[in-house]
Amino acid sequence: MSKELTISTRGIEMPESPIRKLAPLAYKAEDEGVKIYRLNIDQPDLPTPQKALDALSDIAAKNVDGSIGSPQGRTTLEYSPSQGYRSLRKALVNYYERYQIKLSADDIIITCGGSEAVLFSFMSCLNPGDEIIVPEPAYANYMSFAISAGAVIRTVTTTIEEGFCLPKVEKFEELINERTKAVLICNPNNPTGYLYTQKEMNQIRDLVKKYNLYLFSDEVYREFIYTGSPYISAMHLEGIEQNVILIDSVSKRYSECGIRIGALITKNESVRKTVMKFCQARLSPPLIGQIVAEASIEGTEAYSREVYEEYLERRKTLIDGVNRIPGCYTPIPMGAFYTVAKLPVDDAEKFCAWCLSDFRYKDEKTAGMKPSGHNPNVVAETIMLAPAAGFYTSPEMGKNQVRLAYVLCKEDIQRALMILEKAIEQYNAIEK
Question: What pLDDT was estimated at residue 367?
Fold first, then answer.
């Protein structure tokens, strides 16, 4: 008798991405000639720095060690060192110095995106069954990486009504037991745009120190802070230097999501040595991505200032626009380029799917639009949002919420919000 083929428990438990799960509906709509305003995904529409593009086009003129600017030609696209090129890591040392984060190149390991940095942190520091405390809503893929590592996410819930600020430390301590090994934060936060205060960071520091926990700190959005409050890195917290593992990425700040370059940074030598075993097993981070990333870091301060000013304007456009729609509400995010908004709908996931499968908007401007898919003829428009329930683990949380990313130009954001208002009106008129 033959055995039945089965799917792993890990695979069954792995959640679908709230950011990408509706993608098949979007592709079908685009094939029909529907232009989609994608507010669901954090893919900026701003250009990558010219220095990075030049480095990409000039790869044949780079040195074989991956350093920038050598007259020697590259004849082979070889493996890089498993920890990444030292020239890139030294460039990152200089970059972090701007934020009063003092590192050596040996403190930094280059990863295949920030995602791999999170996964390798979990795999290196946690045993199956170990627990991580995470404020929610949280970046949805944290749950996926925890499942991959056999770890368990325990959440402390923040609320839209309170602007997603952290609850009192007692709420964290209620979750701590003999299996608790770490706290994970994202600052500035994805999906809420919340920026942790000095008081909140001190609270986290004291908790980590008291129970000797790891602190995984995802700080990929440090360039995007829209308040006079200072940026507080986990690396700034005194007394827990050996507990901190910093997660970073170049994807967002340089519009380079596709090169898949991130970093895992820690002063803890034992953790670094363990992470390196996983790095060696996957051989090396992307060669071409490292060359592009290094070129982006040096000499792009003017680019960064322009991008920052653009996001300031986009934030205002989105937040003001959402809060003008009857029944909608979002707090003002202080960082990143996301916000979570409450919509006057019964089920945000059903609404988001309906926008892609059924709702079609058109007016006199529609026919002249540039398509978002391969179909050259735009016959209608719609929006794509990320249902926020996928950023929570607590049942029923976020059911009428969506995450919005203000990564489109202001004109497209304005158009998308107008369409959102029309979609809400039409959806709520349907008999359910």
Answer: 81
